[in-house]
Every structure is written in C-alpha cells, then in structure tokens.
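If your schedule permits, I should be very grateful for your opinion on a structural question. Kindly check, if you would, that the fold set down in the tokens agrees with what the sequence suggests. Thank you for your consideration; the sequence and its tokens are set out here:
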Amino acid sequence: MAVERIIFIRPGETDWNKQGRWQGWVATPLNEHGRRQAESLARFLRTIGMSALYSSDLRRAMQTAEILCRVLGYEAIPDERLRERNIGLWQGLTLDEMRAWYADEYESMLKDVNAYRVPAGESRDEVRARMKSAYNDIMQQARGETVGILTHTTALKVLLEDLFPGYDAIGANLGNTSVTTMRRKGDSWTLVAVDDCLHLEGLRTAAVSEIEANKT
C-alpha cells in the first residue's frame, strides 16, 4: 500500500527549550512537561492508524518516540539523517549569547542564511540535503497509508520548504510535539495541518520563530 499521509512530529520539551538554549546535537533529555506532552500526543496517534514511526536518533527525539511507541505497539526506526541542525560552537547558547560571543560569525550567517555553515556545525543547505535523502528513502520503503516522521524544528522547516515552494521556513512556528500533516492528492501532496497542538489539551508548548531569531 502506497503512503498517503505523512505525520511530522517535533519532540517534547526539554529544559533547554524552556531556557531558550539552542540544542543542535546535544543529548538533552525530555523534562517532565515534555514527557506529559508526548503522552498526550500518544493518545491522539493511537486513533489514526499510523503504520510506522521513523525518528531522529537524538536523545530527546528517541525518548519521545519511546513514549509514543508504548501506545502504538511497535518500535521506532531511528535515522541519524533526521537529526536537528548541528550548530557546532553555538550549541547550548541563547540568541543573545550567540550575537555577543560570535558577533562576526553571526553577521556572516545573516548574509547567507541557507549556505552559511555554523563553526564546527552545518549549514541549512546541508541539513536540507540529508533530510531529502531520508525522506526519499522513507517514501520508497514505507508500507501503510499513514507514516510518522519524528524530527526537529530546522530540519523539518527546510524539508517542507523544499517540498512546498512558498512555505515560509523562516517565519513558521513549530511547537513541542506539534503535528504537521501532508496528504497525497492525486499525483501531488498538500499540507493539511501545520503546527497542530490540539492534542496537548491545554499543556503549553514552546516555539521560537526564526524571525524572532533573526534567521538563525
């Protein structure tokens, strides 16, 4: 059976999310609130018939996946290509610290948002390339009408920007455990929900737009 619907999921909250610290590849764990978010999401996903869950192998993503899969009844499929952007020397910093401690590098980034490579890290274009590779493989290998992909903010934004020309990857918000859904319509795909957090039932969710982050 061909895949007809993709459910993109962002991991639950960590303490660094609360503090406004950029995580990149750091092994930050879910906090208690993030675990409750994932449990609420699991109750929602139980009803939609998702046949497989592919996940970033970063700690916060795999902890979210484990909570979801206890309800889904199968194990997540880890894929390092679904990781967040590696932000190298900027990992663990707030935006104010990035601007103050790496002022010249930060200005260089603003001049070429997609091609700029963070010191000891990645560019958005490099993230886009590996996300496209992972997505293409998933679409070829997956079985079932609905498939889940658990990934991260920048990684998902650059993929959506590639799949849907005109998608505002800079201004978009994606909250913790938010659901973004695309569905096949004939020979093409359409976005039917973006940053859906209704499953959280009043639990707060954090999101930082890249406009607020001056296009970081």
